[in-house]
DNA sequence: ATCGCAAATGTAATCGGTTTCATTATGACT
DNA sequence: AGTCATAATGAAACCGATTACATTTGCGAT
């Protein structure tokens, strides 16, 4: 005696409709090749039985999983989750589902060991990597599905990438400060090993070099509120305060502002601050933050589209998405600059 | 001629080791029942071929997917993504992977239609629902895997739940304000249909009733920074300003504070603000926010554990996690209260 | 040596679909 | 009516593992 609550199988539908299982399968996957009469009969039978395909069986036969894996450094970080939202949207439109793995949640002993098991064609049809700190060797085996790098990237891992224009963004930010007359600009960076930090540092260097200025002094942070806050102490301990700070992301900028304001500095009167990313919070910070807008959801969408495109035409494309400066209240003309301007006028 | 790059199958390993496929399978899944000699031979063959099991085949045979689906209302919201991080951690320890679906990204025409396809045993072994606004009927069919509700819940959907103690949290927040002498307390709520809003409103009502005070006036928000900011205008338009506001979450509180400060009000001197959730940003807000701490990662972990426990002992448990008040700088004694205290002394 | 039981291993069924290939039905054209 | 191409359908192979069941092996007890 069979469990009456058992899910109906394609065989049950076929029997009820008086056709073969092959026909039922065709009605479901390619209705155009089956006659009107039988199609209707099958659809009726599907309706009556409440049949839904068993995806495990279908996937096994079709040798595809119907899912894409996203590797994120920190799932709890809104920066990444917004990219994920973009990825998710594109995947759903294609009927694919999104698997998420937090790369920092691995066994601390061997961070990559647990990951390798997930980098397998039988787990996911593709991988979107949002963590630039991974070992490229992880992806270097036959069983690894197609990979797209997004946002961050991995040196030594060839393949398509979708990136924001970090260098231009940083350059625009610094040029904005230079235009306001700032000359003593400090760069609050992300971890120096991080690819984002590196390309943003390049933008900073380019802007300063173009203005004939020496490289900016740096404080290294960790992209976190906390590290931004901690940087305020380091900054205030310096002999000569900078007149402006460019921060590699908004979270650090907000942490930094909190620390500076607590120490009695006024923003932007005493010190100008620029961030990067334009997270939603930045508009509502203690002082609305001037920052570089990066369209994260779009970046996610593009990454997913790039991955899907790989199926038909594998090519190691590199897509660089434009960014733009958003000027709010955390930046103002340098006071030195004002003095100079006043002197010029009086002269 | 076979593709030399094709992934090795269990058959290849068996041939190389000179054993049957059954033995190879046993070495991989239950090594103890195979002799030392053959086990080593098989392990060597696995090593040489670089074999890894095909999960689609295994899953089909074992009738399980190896994945859990999380239904979140907004993937980009850090509040949820931190819960996801907790879920993810627990699942990984069990070798399960995490599928994520943003319930608001469905076809706007019929929000639940797209979802139903995902609520299927052949897609996921279990479901963790973080969205209380879904139709309970969605889950009411035989093919739906076991469900655990977390954080929010769905009226009319029986089954295990893991919740923060929203009512107590709200009550503690309001009692804190009452203790500071506030009597004119406004409640900035989430959407009135939201279960979280409702239970927090219950806590607010309980605290006020216990103090013999009438219900608090409300402004309805949407749990977003923007709606919190918008609420500031509505608040300032009122004839009599409240001396304190309890906000249903930190994001609204931060948005509200930004609006109030822009209008020239000082926090906490002119008005006290309490939030809920204790998101990381709250400590770095323009004024460090007094709020109710909710352990989101733990909530996620518990939800995952509850789901796993359902496998062996299905039971509609309800787990309520404690919350605690975190007092920072956004709350201070009511000025009325101070006046009253002064008068009392002088009398 | 023989028996019996347990341990080790092999054979083949099974999971539930999709898809190839063969077969039958349909219909157009001469 | 006969021929042939094409459309519609069915039978069975296949995807790649796990596992029930059968068989063989190993070993101690008699």
Task: Give me the number of helical elements of chain A.
Answer: 12
The first-to-last residue Cα distance of chain A is: 103 Å
Structurally, the number of domains of chain A stands at: 3
Summarize model confidence as the mean pLDDT of chain A: 92
Strand elements of chain A, count: 12
Pfam families (chains A, B): LacI, Peripla_BP_3
Protein name (chains A, B): LacI family DNA-binding transcriptional regulator
Keywords (chains A, B): DNA-binding, Transcription, Transcription regulation
Domain HTH lacI-type (chains A, B): 8-62
Describe the overall structure.
The structure is a homodimer of 347-residue chains. Chain A has 347 residues and is α/β, with parallel strands linked by helices. Chain A folds into three domains: 10-53, Orthogonal Bundle (434 Repressor (Amino-terminal Domain)); 64-159 and 297-321, Rossmann fold; 166-290 and 327-342, Rossmann fold (3-Layer(aba) Sandwich). The first copy, chain A, is built from twelve helices and twelve strands. In chain A, helix 5 (78-93) links the parallel strand 1 and strand 2 (97-102). In chain A, helix 5 (78-93) crosses helix 11 (296-312) and helix 7 packs parallel to helix 8. The longest helix of chain A has 17 residues, at 296-312. Chains A and B meet through helix 4, helix 5, strand 2 and helix 10 of A and helix 4, helix 5, strand 2 and helix 10 of B. Strand 2 (97-102) of chain A pairs antiparallel with strand 2 (97-102) of chain B, so a sheet runs across the interface. The structure holds a DNA duplex (30 and 30 nucleotides).
């Amino acid at each position: 005696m069979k469990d009456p609550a058992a899910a109906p199988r394609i065989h049950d539908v076929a029997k009820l409709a008086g056709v073969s299982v092959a026909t039922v399968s065709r009605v479901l996957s390619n209705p155009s090749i089956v006659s009107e009469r039988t199609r209707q009969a099958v659809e009726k039978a599907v309706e009556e039985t409440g049949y839904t395909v068993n995806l495990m069986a279908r996937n096994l036969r079709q040798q595809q999983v119907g899912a894409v894996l996203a590797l994120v450094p920190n799932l709890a970080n809104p920066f990444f989750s917004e990219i994920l939202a973009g990825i998710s949207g594109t995947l759903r439109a294609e009927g694919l589902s999104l698997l998420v793995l937090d790369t920092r949640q691995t066994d601390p002993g061997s961070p990559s060991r647990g990951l390798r098991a997930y980098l397998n064609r039988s787990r996911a049809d593709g991988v979107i990597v949002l963590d630039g700190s991974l070992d490229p060797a992880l992806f270097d085996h036959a069983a690894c599905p197609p990979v797209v790098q997004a946002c961050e990237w991995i040196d030594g891992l060839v393949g398509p990438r979708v990136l924001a224009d970090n260098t231009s963004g940083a350059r625009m930010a610094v040029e904005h400060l230079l235009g306001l007359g700032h000359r003593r600009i400090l760069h609050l960076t992300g971890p120096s090993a991080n690819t984002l930090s590196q390309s943003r540092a390049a933008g900073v260097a380019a802007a300063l070099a173009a203005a004939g200025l020496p490289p900016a002094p740096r404080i290294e942070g960790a992209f976190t509120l906390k590290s931004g806050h901690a940087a305020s102490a380091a900054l205030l301990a310096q002999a000569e305060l900078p007149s402006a700070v460019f921060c590699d992301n908004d979270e650090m900028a907000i942490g930094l502002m909190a620390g500076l304001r607590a120490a009695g500095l006024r923003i932007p009167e005493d010190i100008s601050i620029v961030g990067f990313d334009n997270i939603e919070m930045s508009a509502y910070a203690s002082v609305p933050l001037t920052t570089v807008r990066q369209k994260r959801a779009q970046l996610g969408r593009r990454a997913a589209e790039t991955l899907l495109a790989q199926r038909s035409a594998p090519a190691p494309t590199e897509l660089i998405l434009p960014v733009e400066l958003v000027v709010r209240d955390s930046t103002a003309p340098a006071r030195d600059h004002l003095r100079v301007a006043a002197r010029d006028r009086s002269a």
